[in-house]
Amino acid sequence: MSDPATDVIAIGNAIVDVMAPCPDETIERLGLVRGGMTLVDTQRAHELYDAMGPAREISGGAAANTLAGLAALGGKCAFIGQVADDQLGEVFAHDIRAGGIAFSTPPRAGDPPTARCLIFVTPDGQRTMNTYLGASQFLPAAALDEAAIADAAVLFLEGYLWDPEEPRAAMRRAIAAAKNAGRKVAFTLSDAFVIERHGADFHAMIETGEIDIMFANEVELAALTGISDFDKGIDDLASRVPVLVVTRSEKGAVAVRDGERADVAAEPVDSVVDTTGAGDMFAAGFLFGHVRGRPLGECLRLGAICASEIISHFGARPEADLQALVAARMG
User: Fold this and answer.
1) pLDDT in tens, 23-43
2) Would 115 disulfide with which of 5, 15, 284, 300, CB 3.0-4.6 Å?
3) How far apart are CA 142 and CA 250, in angstroms?
């Protein structure tokens, strides 16, 4: 097997985040699920956008955010995702390429438009996301660059994109391409609602060895295992997945790799401004260390440092020099 040319190639939603601060009462008035992610249709997307205060548009999408962090750390990355041939599609493509990430998926003509996520951020930094998937849910298997997948050390898959049928078929094909090339497959569960709808798929993929690295938070861990006790849930899933990474917000994170467990505390921050993308950036730091063969605890620390940077400002893409930040904190 040849050395990979790319560290991580990811498949995920190609989304532009539209973010605005709001008071707590706005969440209740609009009937939003505080701190969660809700899929919305075109009409609801327009309603919520009209209810937002002054907003910022920042390219997002969970897997794309992870790649932005990886590239900022010095990793070599590529992204596969579907945008429409419209203004927001051009914004997304420009942003991801400007971050040094290879992106060659052709834009889709006509409706629906490029996906967008309307994010309401309350004073405590909690984000409430309302996602209009638009063109992203129509990623066809024909858009895959299987040679690029085979030439990446890790194929990283976004759980959110498992829900629509067309990209789910594309991801299954991508897994086969990665496995045939002897590469690793990483999967992030994304949200409990994804597990509720597709948990049987995920368990089957685990049992057949299609998932080498799994990312989850503690809510998703409980949803997938059916076990409310955190440590028992870790033991259950870690016995079936070669590498398991579970984040716990302010309580830090846990990883188990081939039976070895490591824990890390959350990195201190002056104030939590916006938690959007914290898990995505944690995955970036962890994967950066993992593909370089770093010790498990060091991979976790890299993830924690990257997550601390992202929650200190609005938006899910890094603003500070991550390489300098890591050097300062890890020595």
Assistant:
1) 999 999 999 999 888 989 988
2) 15
3) 41
